[in-house]
UniProtKB/TrEMBL annotation:
<dbReference type="InterPro" id="IPR000331">
    <property type="entry name" value="Rap/Ran_GAP_dom"/>
</dbReference>
<feature type="compositionally biased region" description="Gly residues">
    <location>
        <begin position="57"/>
        <end position="66"/>
    </location>
</feature>
<comment type="function">
    <text>GTPase activator for the nuclear Ras-related regulatory protein RAP-1A (KREV-1), converting it to the putatively inactive GDP-bound state.</text>
</comment>
<dbReference type="GO" id="GO:0005886">
    <property type="term" value="C:plasma membrane"/>
</dbReference>
<feature type="region of interest" description="Disordered">
    <location>
        <begin position="435"/>
        <end position="539"/>
    </location>
</feature>
<dbReference type="Pfam" id="PF02145">
    <property type="entry name" value="Rap_GAP"/>
</dbReference>
<dbReference type="Pfam" id="PF21022">
    <property type="entry name" value="Rap-GAP_dimer"/>
</dbReference>
<dbReference type="GO" id="GO:0005737">
    <property type="term" value="C:cytoplasm"/>
</dbReference>
<dbReference type="GO" id="GO:0051056">
    <property type="term" value="P:regulation of small GTPase mediated signal transduction"/>
</dbReference>
<feature type="compositionally biased region" description="Basic and acidic residues">
    <location>
        <begin position="501"/>
        <end position="513"/>
    </location>
</feature>
<keyword id="KW-0343">GTPase activation</keyword>
<feature type="region of interest" description="Disordered">
    <location>
        <begin position="570"/>
        <end position="595"/>
    </location>
</feature>
<feature type="domain" description="Rap-GAP">
    <location>
        <begin position="169"/>
        <end position="385"/>
    </location>
</feature>
<dbReference type="GO" id="GO:0005096">
    <property type="term" value="F:GTPase activator activity"/>
</dbReference>
<dbReference type="InterPro" id="IPR035974">
    <property type="entry name" value="Rap/Ran-GAP_sf"/>
</dbReference>
<feature type="compositionally biased region" description="Polar residues">
    <location>
        <begin position="570"/>
        <end position="588"/>
    </location>
</feature>
<feature type="compositionally biased region" description="Polar residues">
    <location>
        <begin position="458"/>
        <end position="470"/>
    </location>
</feature>
């Protein structure tokens, strides 16, 4: 109501009318065309000159008239300077600034060495390049972090060893990069002073149509495949047409007030307001000189307005007068208005206007409301990135658990340590199976189950159970089914024979050595004519002998255990019978056949 009274007072005074009037209680600023152009504040990068150098090319940040998009180039720095190049990534846990992610890259330019650094915290990303000339040695990682941020303490960095870590980091850096925009376009007639009047306009004059054709292309919404900006492209609930364009690799959809559905009897025209009122930036087209107050439209999202007033429309001498207003917590944004802020109709004005709209939205994200939301989002994403890099690094080293999906991606291995653990579990289960099966075997049995293959020891079954497998835990076990399926032909069986046929009770060292015989070695009878034959006891008069069948399926674990067995065998060769290991092509083929 206060702004409405102000507008009526201004209109009663007659022309000339100001293009924008500030609300009585403030809260907004108006860009002064006579003020000197300041440094854009919507970019945090210290390498603005690089962005400007690239802007001259097609698709670059700057167009043919030199109007530069003020996007945060730090968000794209990792992709530009690090991704696909030799560099190192580190993560830090529990510093005074929380979790940190750092990237380092050595560069050499014209014979001079540099160190490019990116340090990510919960609040911001620091990007810099320091020369190494004059330094006696390369500084440590914590020292490098202190160079960028003096007040950080408690630094303890760990290298990122996950092969796909760079993809996770670049996704985090570019989470704030926006390549799609939606802007409101409001048509204001002379003397209109309320949002009900603005959203109630239902006709497009030739001057307004000329302005829309300069912004972009008139497209049919039905089955539209580009960026739709929240409009319905399937059922026509948001109108049949809209204005769309692609500008410097960015898609823009305009919410034109006169093209959105008009509802008879609805004073507020909620079908129109719910789209334009949820935009962050809007362009207001004034066909005649008339004042506009930024709080005329009640919205929690609209933070900036670009007002365009047509002069001599639909002629060869059409010009546009431009004014800019935004909420007081929105920083200034470019390109600056010329003095006077009047443009001729043509491609230069189009480039200026679209650049101004995009920069306005990027600047609005730094206002208090959006900055708090972005801060919470960034902090959560950084913590998730830190935890994922730590988890995947530990999994790569075989020190942490990984999910089934990670196992499929990494080939099912959890590192050498995990392979060794799996092999030991296989051996333990197989030993328990053999002992349990032998305990329940009849005393007069003449053979062994078909699942137990290998050779025999020259002891009776009672002696074998007592002397070789004395631990009460194992002997008390009930028969277990081996969890390892037989796989024929993967690994040949290695057979060993004892030289002394006489019975003896092995000493404690013999018993210990017998427990660490490698899984791929099996004991066989020296009288066996066919070392690979599945028949264990061809002589029925022989006493029942026990054998061990252990089958491994992890080649690295087999090599590892064979190495350990060789070392253990050399230390215990005086306390146990000599074991000979032989592997021939005949055994390999016969082992595959009978497996």
């Amino acid at each position: 109501p206060t702004s409405l009274c102000t507008l009526h007072i201004v209109l009663e005074k007659g022309s000339p009318y100001p293009q924008v009037i500030l609300p009585q209680f403030g809260g907004y600023w108006i860009e002064d065309a006579e003020a000197p152009a300041g440094t854009p504040t919507s970019s945090d990068s210290s390498f603005c000159e690089e962005e400007e150098a690239e802007s001259s090319g097609p698709g670059g940040e700057g167009g043919g008239f030199g109007y530069r998009l003020e996007s945060n180039s730090t968000a794209r720095a990792y992709r530009k300077h690090f991704l696909g190049r030799e560099h190192m990534n580190y993560y830090c846990t529990g510093s005074s600034l929380g979790n940190l992610i750092m990237s380092l890259k050595h560069e050499e330019v014209e014979g001079q060495e540099f160190l490019r650094i990116m340090l990510r915290s919960k609040t911001k990303t620091l990007h810099d390049r320091i020369p190494l000339e004059g330094l006696p040695q390369l500084p440590s990682v914590p020292q490098i972090a202190k160079l960028l941020c003096d007040d950080v303490t408690g630094l303890k960095f760990n290298p990122v060893l996950y092969p796909r870590g760079s993809q996770l980091i670049v996704s985090f850096d570019e989470h704030e990069v926006n390549n799609t925009f939606k802007f409101g376009v409001i048509y204001q007639k002379f003397g209109q002073t309320s949002e009900e009047e603005l959203f109630g306009n239902n006709e497009e004059t030739s001057a307004f149509a000329e302005f829309l054709s300069m912004l972009g292309d008139n497209i049919e919404l039905q089955d539209f495949k580009g960026f739709r900006g929240g409009l319905d492209v399937s059922h026509g609930q948001t109108g049949s047409q809209s204005v769309y364009t692609v500008f410097r690799n960015r898609e823009i959809m305009f919410h034109v007030s006169t093209k959105l559905p008009f509802t008879e009897g609805d004073v507020q025209q909620l079908q129109r307001k719910r789209h334009i009122g949820n935009d962050i930036v809007a362009a207001v087209f004034q066909e005649e000189p008339t004042p506009f107050v930024p709080d005329m439209i009640a919205s929690n999202f609209l933070h900036a307005y670009v007002l365009v007033q047509a002069e001599n429309p639909c002629t060869d001498h059409t010009t546009y007068k431009v004014s800019v207003t935004a909420r007081e917590d929105v920083p200034p944004f470019g390109p600056p208005l010329p003095n006077p802020a009047v443009f001729k109709k043509g491609p230069e004005f189009r480039e200026f206007l679209l650049t101004k709209l995009i920069n306005a939205e990027n600047a609005c994200y730094k206002s208090d409301k959006f900055a708090k939301l972005e801060g919470r989002t960034r902090a959560a994403l950084l913590d998730n990135l830190h935890d994922e890099l730590h988890r995947q690094t530990q999994a790569t080293l075989g020190l942490g658990s990984i999910t089934d999906e990670d196992k499929l991606e990494n080939g099912g291995h959890g590192g050498l340590l995990e392979s060794f653990k799996r092999a030991m579990r296989v051996r333990s289960h197989s030993m328990e199976t053999m002992v349990g099966s032998h305990k329940h075997k009849p005393a007069g049995g003449g053979g062994v189950p078909s699942s137990v293959s290998g050779g025999v020891l020259p002891q009776s079954s009672t002696e074998c159970t007592k002397s070789t497998f004395t631990p009460p835990v194992l002997s008390a076990k009930s028969p277990l089914k081996s969890p390892v399926k037989r796989r024929s032909g993967l690994f040949p069986r290695l057979h060993s024979s004892t030289e002394s046929p006489t019975e003896r009770h092995p000493s404690r060292s013999d018993q210990k050595t017998a427990d660490i015989i490698p899984h791929s070695q099996e004991v066989r009878s020296e009288t066996s004519s066919n070392p690979s034959s599945p028949e264990i006891c061809p002589n029925k008069e022989r006493s029942v002998n026990c054998g061990v069948s252990l089958l491994l399926y992890d080649s690295p674990a087999v090599e590892f255990l064979q190495t350990c067995s060789t070392a253990q065998h050399s230390t215990a060769q005086h306390s146990q019978p000599e074991v000979s290991v032989e592997l021939t092509s005949k055994q390999v083929h016969s082992g595959r056949a009978c497996g």
